[in-house]
Amino acid sequence: MNASKLKTAIIKRIDEIDDVELLKSLESLFNTSDKNISKFLELANEKLLQENETEDFTAYIKEWVKNM
């Protein structure tokens, strides 16, 4: 997706938001530097990935079965 289409999609999504508090939060986010926005989005993305990950117990189970 090119920059123009991405901007249009973001603007469309923002236009759908009716919650004033959420809009104020977005405004303060946009009023910060690009570096701070990137850091915030990176942290938010990491949190989402962590929430979606499941712990892998395969090695533990294999070891447990081997020791039985």
Tally the helices.
Answer: 4
- List how many beta strands DSSP finds: 0
CA distance, first residue to last residue: 53 Å
| Helix residue percentage | over 70%
What is the strand content? under 5%
What gyration radius follows from the Cα positions, in whole Å?
A: 20 Å
Taken from the alpha-carbon principal axes, the silhouette is: elongated
Give the averaged pLDDT, no decimals.
84
Number of domains: 1
Tell me the structural class: mainly alpha
The largest sheet is: none
- Ranges where pLDDT stays below 50 over 5 or more residues in a row are none
Notes on the protein architecture:
With 68 residues, this protein is mostly helical. It has one domain. It is 76% helix and 0% strand. The chain has helices at residues 3-15, 20-30, 34-52, 58-66. The longest helix is centred in the middle third of the chain and has 19 residues, at 34-52. The relative contact order is 0.06.
Strand and helix map with partners:
Layout: H1 3-15, H2 20-30, H3 34-52, H4 58-66
Entry summary:
With 68 residues, the chain is mainly alpha-helical. It contains 4 helices and no strands.
List its salient traits.
about 0% strand; about 70 residues; elongated; single chain; mainly alpha; 4 helices
